[in-house]
Amino acid sequence: MGLTRREFIKTSAAAAAAASLGTSLIPGAASQLFADSTKWHKSVCRFCGTGCGVMVGERDGKVVAVKGDNLNTINKGHLCVKGFYLHKIVYSDTRLKHPMIKKDGKFQRVSWDEALNFVAERFNSIRKQYGPDALAFYGSGQAETEETYMANKLYKGCIGTNNMEGNPRLCMASAVGGYLTSLGLDEPVGTYDDIEQAEFFMLIGSNTAECHPILFERIIRRKHQNPNVKILIIDPRKTPTDQITDLHLFPKPGYDLAILHAMARIIIKEGYADEQFIKENVVFKDNKKDLTFEEYKQFLEKYTPEYAANDSGVPAEDIVAAARMFGRAKTAMSMWTMGINQRTRGVWANNLITNLHLLTGKIGKPGCDSFSLTGQPNACGGVREGGGLCHLLPAHRSVKNPKHREEVAKVWDVPVSNIQPKPGKHTIAMFEALNKGEIKGIFILCTNPAQSLPNAAKYRKGLEEQFVVVSESFFPTATTKYADVVLPAAFWTEKEGVYGCTERRSQYMPKIVEPLGEARWDAFILRDLAIRMGFKKEFEKYKTAEDIWNEYISLTKGKDMDLSGATYRRLKKVRGLRWPVPSEDHPGTYKRYVQGDPLFDELPREKKKGRWIYFYGKPEGKAVVWARPDKGPEEPTDEDYPFALTTGRVLEHWHTATMTGAVPELNRAVPKAYVEIHPEDAKRLKISNKDQVVIETRRGSLKIEARVIDRPEPGTLFVPWHWEEWMINNLTIDAFDPGSKEPEYKVCAARIKKA
Amino acid sequence: MPIAGIVVMTDEREIQTVYNRLSAHELITTYGIHQDNYIVAVIETDSLRQLEELIDSLRNSNEAILGIYPAYINFEDEVFDNSKPVIEDVQGNSPNTD
Question: Which of B3, B9, B87 minimises the CB distance to A13?
């Protein structure tokens, strides 16, 4: 019997879905079903930081299908709804296909030679006249590690400026600060594997269901398999994540630090603390000095449930219940995202979450972790690990450290004096410097700061006045409007490289099809620009992506994030490797700081002194429980601005929607921005559903449609931030955490009225 | 004409009701209940828009549906004119195309 192609595809679709559950509908036939003219390539999803494995179907040089990768243990064959439309993005009408230079106010198509020569001449001219710090680079957690590595070398190693930043500053810098100060080294102790072993989940500042749907599925699956599993949500807003919660605390936006302290107090008072773990593995500090455990307990005395309730608006009995849920569970996993990180005290909030794990000893064991979720696919791999921020060098090195500068300069084959010892300008300072004319030329790669910066209108002056180069796959964006030169960048499936996701896993992505039009791989755009700027010796050696990766992983050898065993040869075969992976025969590491972590295993016996966990990034291997003050938002509500405005994502869109906005189906699903307002507030202000309203903050105003819904608490407004036409970031505040320099997108004071 | 293989995660207590409802839908073919709370199904629609609207309506209209996860999406009709080709069966097997 013959099959029509449609029948064949339908059967293949059913088989793939069943296979994702480990079931075969047609025993033995699944692999044959897919053995048609479509070639399947193992890759990684382009969207969030979960790192889902995808198989990309290619026929006659075109991407024609996508399926979840059954062999990838992250998503086990499943995808979220955005996966439906990956192909549409590759072939979207908004793809930028050739270089352009703005001449007389209009973009004109030019050759690659003309574009790159023009940029090289302008950058060299600026450098010669004003010095290297008059140039800057602003990159992305969506760029491949190889791409960020090339920019890092060009700017820090050759041009000689540390004015190199990336948009992860805006989303996860506070998590970096939290891990460094609490545990001594960046990135989580555990992995996603802990989900299947946890008895308790605390989801705080995270709409997991919409922003990390595959991880949400794993949590649901865990709860389904074990009804004793409890889920606590701490978030100012009701979201689809609530469908599985056992208890939801709704703090006023920005007022959750006291809750976390109160939970710690209850945990200790009611005997849930692990005294032995604390004695062996923990020290206590406040912002000025070391503390004893007793002094820490004294610090906590202020944080009664009633105090925290008064501060946050959460009922005291719910805070007690939450602490008991955490304390009573044998294992506990916390997860958070921007609701914690995008705060003026984001680092402190991170610390206080980790405090709960350190006090109860629920860290370093299966099913236990203080686990920051990532928003971009390679923010961890390319920027945190690759050193793509103004104070970092590759492999968790610092520009301040002379030994680190020497190590990197040697591999880069540049004079060590090229690498400046002082950190460059962090993101907000960088765009302020553009406004002031201190920075006169910037290369922006794979990101859209004209829309994504907080208080965005303030920073357009610099973009308008200075020399701006944008390398992008899409055109136009809010940022390309200000560009002097736009360079077409190859997109997902059109280039090879590595993404490193939330759980320390690096995964290889192949080049499957040729780039559209004249688009080129960003790493080679940077290489060719560098050569034209006069750095031929330093850059001409990079002929392939593997050349770049090999040099990068040589810099990781012996570091806490050792990737030297994660060669392309291996990565092409496996579904990623979780560092440290110090040799080609090493399987990667499930848990850091404990047996099985090669760095722990190599520690001398006399150093470990019989301890099963050793935080080797901290003196004596002891993590820090922090007594941080509770602090509310930078801009509290008041009589003039009585609402707390918070922003976030919806399932169908991603970031500034340069990708998802190119998909008509996703646009139709959520075609425009809106403001969620609680029915009580709406009634008082005589606002009805779908009314046009005006939101005002001290920075600007926005006319937008109202959605009257009980998702936000009374007194809170929520606006998704994806649309340039309804640019809520003109209203958000650009105050930032003094430690992480991450802005407080998540809360500012606002008012609302009917338009 | 997109075809999607999906996995529908449901409240275990309501799975048979959900399964019956999906099976009755003219654009959905079901392929059994698996692991107590998953339903395997294939959706065939005339356009991606229709597919997306159908998934949205399923997700929003039944609280027993906890999640819908695509596992396979074919959209080659959009890339090529794919109305004609017919291929032979798979080495003698005749997959149940229902």
Answer: B3
Q: What is the CATH number of the domain that holds A50?
A: 3.30.200.210
What is the pTM (predicted TM-score) of this model? Answer: 0.91
A415 touches chain B (CB under 8 A): no
Assess whether A430 carries a catalytic annotation: no
* Structure token digits, residue B12: 């275990």
The residue segments making up the domain with residue B29 are: 3-72
Q: Give yes or no: A48 in active site.
A: no
A13 contact B CB<8A? yes
The domain in which residue A496 lies consists of: 100-171+378-578
The answer as to whether A331 is a domain residue is no
Closest CB to A10 among B12, B85, B97: B97
Residue A614 belongs to a domain: no
| Count of domains observed in chain B | 1
B57 and chain A in contact, CB less than 8 A: no
CA distance A134 to A120: 14
Question: How confident is the model over A25-59, as pLDDT tens digits?
Answer: 765 555 555 556 789 999 999 989 999 999 999 98
- By the 8 A CB rule, do A178 and A350 touch? yes
| CB pairs A-B closer than 8 Å | 190
Asked, for residue B28, whether it belongs to a domain, the answer is: yes
Q: Which of A19, A25, A65 faces B73 most closely, judged by CB atoms?
A: A65
Ranges assigned E (strand) in A446-589: 467-472, 485-488, 497-500, 505-509, 577-578
How many CB atoms neighbour CB A366 within 10 A?
15
Specify the range with the lowest mean pLDDT, choosing from A53-57, A220-224, A400-404.
Answer: A220-224
Residues A403 and A525 in one domain: yes
ipTM of this model? 0.81
The answer to whether B23 contacts chain A (CB < 8 Å) is no
Give yes or no for A33 touching B (CB within 8 A). yes
**Number of Cβ within a 10 Å radius of residue A586:** 17
CATH of the domain at B22: 3.30.70.920
d(CA A594, CA A191): 13
**A376 tagged catalytic:** yes
Q: Report CB contact under 8 Å: B29, A26.
A: no
Count of domains in chain A? 3
